[in-house]
């Protein structure tokens, strides 16, 4: 299917809701012979304010071309950068998975298991005195706002890693400079090039996974089970067959239309297999 990625989202500002919040919320549809058929329901919505940290489960949010938006804040608007200017993820700092996140109005609160807290103001825009620094995500160069020394000290102390900084993305402040270095699959680079204004997501604006797919995987695991959060999706779907989501060319939520390129679902499948956070 040929599709311009920039016009990928039809209903960029429509609200999607989890099942139970509204009477017909979260219906997903499959386009077949120019008709729509019900294929499942949205069972969970996950919002990740800080890349690599725990999610906040929400009841509703907006679908925008830049990703999932909750109360004016985009998904993965914050991230951690190491001393070399590169994204710091759970792969290099596993204890990030223990940090909880809460949002109250315009304040982001991050808490450690021992009860220490960091409060970060959620600004609406970049100010003249903000420090903008270069950083790298998946070998791609971009720029972001440094959140200051207090936030840096909090994470450096918790992780016992000097030089760690907390960064903030603001919509369309700069396009990424894409590098093929380290890209083993041309498909990955293609996705990244076609999403130049993403926040700190690796490849695409949204990540969807189905509960039946996760259940099917668990039926094949012997030692321990995984949950949908192991794959860090924004949208969890139920009521379909395992991996059926791979065949959906379009999806339409009951509260508004959302046109999806098949590339998104191929991307989701690949990302799940390599457990990209």
TrEMBL record:
<keyword id="KW-0472">Membrane</keyword>
<protein>
    <recommendedName>
        <fullName>MOSC domain-containing protein</fullName>
    </recommendedName>
</protein>
<dbReference type="GO" id="GO:0003824">
    <property type="term" value="F:catalytic activity"/>
</dbReference>
<dbReference type="Pfam" id="PF03476">
    <property type="entry name" value="MOSC_N"/>
</dbReference>
<keyword id="KW-1133">Transmembrane helix</keyword>
<dbReference type="GO" id="GO:0030151">
    <property type="term" value="F:molybdenum ion binding"/>
</dbReference>
<feature type="transmembrane region" description="Helical">
    <location>
        <begin position="6"/>
        <end position="29"/>
    </location>
</feature>
<keyword id="KW-0812">Transmembrane</keyword>
<dbReference type="InterPro" id="IPR005303">
    <property type="entry name" value="MOCOS_middle"/>
</dbReference>
<dbReference type="Pfam" id="PF03473">
    <property type="entry name" value="MOSC"/>
</dbReference>
<dbReference type="GO" id="GO:0030170">
    <property type="term" value="F:pyridoxal phosphate binding"/>
</dbReference>
<feature type="domain" description="MOSC">
    <location>
        <begin position="179"/>
        <end position="277"/>
    </location>
</feature>
<dbReference type="InterPro" id="IPR005302">
    <property type="entry name" value="MoCF_Sase_C"/>
</dbReference>
